[in-house]
Amino acid sequence: MSAKSEKSSNGTKSFPLTREALTKLKLKAVRRGCWFRDLKHNERKLLDLTMRVVEKVHSFLLAKIVSQLVRKLHGAMESMVHRLMRTEGRSMAEYVARIGESWGNTVAKFWATDYAFIQYLTVNNLLAFKA
Length: 131
Description:
The longest helix has 23 residues, at 80-102. The chain contains six helices and no strands. The protein has two domains: 19-78, no CATH class; 81-130, no CATH class. Residues 5-11 have low confidence and may be disordered. The protein has helices at residues 19-32, 34-38, 41-53, 60-77, 80-102, 115-130. The termini are far apart. By secondary structure, the chain is mainly α. 68% of the residues lie in helices and 0% in strands.
């Protein structure tokens, strides 16, 4: 786990634990207001110190700690729609795909993994709640 964080629980790609990548993440988090709101003082200091001192994280222990903080920031910066797509939208798409297959539609099996379809169902479901 030397230069990259471990795979996150939501299955996203690994994040390089380099000064450049951490600096970009910090800038993005500060712009979105997550840096100060979602990280404790000690967590921010650890990330700042890591960015100042280390060009690339090699220590397993440091990589483990920094990876947890990176996941925390990524989760805080994720939009509500993307979070719902990941949690509820996929299951809705799988349900609709099963119904489509039971009606004899051979293409329906691909609906469960179609990003645009999952997004459509999620947004449509959000609009139904607001109405």
